[in-house]
Every structure is written in structure tokens, then in C-alpha cells.
Amino acid sequence: MQIYNINQSLYKFMFLMLLLSAGLIGLSLGLLGAGGSILTVPALTLFLGLDEKSAITSSMLIVGLISAVGGIKAYRNRQLDLSILVSFGIVSLPFAALGARIGIWLPQGSQTLLLVAIMCIAAYKMFASTVRSDSDTSSSSYTNSMTTSVSAPPPSKRALLTAAASVGLITGVVGVGGGFLIVPALIFFTGIGMQKAVANSLVLIVINAFTAFTTIAVGGHGVELDAIIIITMASIGAICVLAGQSISSRLDQRTLKRGFSTLIVLVAIWLLINLLY
Predict the structure, then answer these.
(1) How far apart (Å, rounded) are the C-alpha atoms in residues 223 and 217?
(2) Cα 90 to chain centroid, rounded
(3) Alpha helices (H) along 33-109
(4) Whose CA is closest to 44, among 70, 72, 67, 21?
(5) Contacts of 23 (CB under 8 A, 6+ apart)
(6) Is residue 219 within 8 Å of residue 101, measured between CB atoms?
(7) If 0-12 CB within 10 Å is exposed, 13-18 middle and 19+ buried, where does residue 194 land?
(8) What pTM does this model have?
(9) pLDDT tens digits for range 7-18
């Protein structure tokens, strides 16, 4: 494992923080189906000093492996919807490949800047959803009284597929899973519940992450990967994603989203400072 000009004790601390990050990534994916993967690249660059391209490519494998474990459990629990996976996956897959090719040729630092912007957007969407949730709860009695006489508008398939294309492109370019877009898109445009949206999100993250990684690997772009880092983070994250799935129904989603959105903003600021200075 390459050590970047840091002493042994500091290295041990950084590696410990990396392991904690892997656990947090897995927990978030298991609890929310989103957010966790967006911390993978910052963890690799800030704690181990990996270069931008290596961190993003490693993130694709790590996030894909962690999500695959959660996806297997979701399949066993009969939470997956094949029609959603096929329609969303078919559209997102080529855009993930396209994004990976674009990312390889982007100048150094530009992907990190784009990631910081995406992290801020993800944090905003995550926090805003809790505000809307509070509003929805306060007006639930009115809504319930109206549902018998007014039907909801039909979901827009075009909007869902546009979200699928966006998620694939984002995964390919900056190595994040895109669950912060997938979960709300599935809930809003297909009408499925939160837990089922999280379950399907994990499988879609696997599809996009492995497609983007395969595109880079087949292209022979010579990105350096560390198998020990990838296996270690994926293993810890896999354990934690299963734990997150097991306890998700017992925790307050609003509190989790608010806390995690705050963490994402703080990490984004740290990542930006590290890039500029």
C-alpha cells in the first residue's frame, strides 16, 4: 500500500478513519439507499491521498460491491421490481459508460470540483425532502380526505428515464452511485414505497457502477488500483449495509437524512479546501 509522505502513526489514524468511512458508507446505503457512496471518493483522497482518477475508479468497484450485497438481500426479501430495474437500467447503462469515458479525459481537479457540486446538491435534496415530509405529515388528514375523490396524476415515464440517464452519467464521471436521485425518482414516478425504492436503488447502483468500471478497465487507461483498499472497504461496507437494511424500519428517516446531509456538506468543504490548498 502506498504511503504519501505521512508518518506511521498518522497513517494508522488515516486508515482507521477510512475504515469508519466504509462503515458509514454501508450504513447509509442500507438505511437510505443513497448518500453513502458519495463519501467514497473523498475518503480515498483525503485519508489515503489517492489521486483523483484512482479514487473515482476504486469507488466504482467499492460502491458496486457494497450495493451488490444489499441487492442480494433485497432479492431474497422479494423487494425488487423487475420492470423498474429493466427500464431504468437499460437507459442508465450506456450513459454510465459514456460518463466513464468523459471522466478519463477530464483535466485533473475538474472531477473533484464536479463532485463537490454534486455533494452540495445531494445534501440539499436530502435535507429538503425532510422539510417536505414534515409538511406532508401536517396535511395528511386533508390529503386522506381528498384521495377518495381525486386521483393522483399518472407518473411520467419520460421524467423517470431522464433521471436514469442523469444517474448513469454522474456515476461514470465522478464515481458516485446516484442513489440521492434514484430513490426519490422511483418513489415519485413509480409510486413504490421508501423501503422498496431503497432496495431497487441498490441494484441500479450496481449496474451503473460496474458498467462504468468495466468501460475504464476495457479501455486500458492504466488507472492504478489497490486491491487491499478495495477489498477492505467493500467488506466492511457490505457488513454495514446489511445492518442498515435490518434496522431501517426502526429509525427516523428524517433525522438520519438531516444528519447525513450536514455531514456531506462538511466533507464537501474539506474536499474543496484540500483541492485548492
Answers:
(1) 8
(2) 19
(3) 40-48, 52-76, 82-105
(4) 21
(5) 236, 237, 239, 240
(6) yes
(7) middle
(8) 0.80
(9) 677 777 777 888
Total residues belonging to the chain:
277
Query: DSSP 3-state helix, strand, coil percentages of the chain (rounded to 5)?
Result: 80, 0, 20
- Whether the predicted pLDDT of 139 surpasses 50: no
Spatial neighbors of 195 by CB under 8 A, at least 6 apart, are 79, 248, 249
Q: And the C-alpha cell for 235?
A: 467488506
Distance CA 147, CA 55 (A): 48
Q: What is the pLDDT of residues 87-118, one digit of tens each?
A: 888 999 999 999 999 988 888 888 889 889 98
How many other C-beta atoms lie within 10 A of the C-beta of residue 3? 13
| C-alpha count within 13 angstroms, C-beta hemisphere, residue 93 | 10
Give the type of residue at 207: I
Distance CA 235, CA 241 (A): 10
The whole-angstrom separation of Cα 275 and Cα 277 is: 6
Of 43-47, 65-69, 180-184, which one has max mean pLDDT?
A: 65-69
Residue labelled with grid coordinates 447509509: 28
**In the 8-state DSSP scheme, what is residue 108?**
T
CA dist 172 and 213 (Å) reads 8
Which stretches within 220-252 are classed as H helix? 227-247
Contact 36, 21 (CB under 8 A): no
CA 103 to CA 173: how far, in whole Å?
4
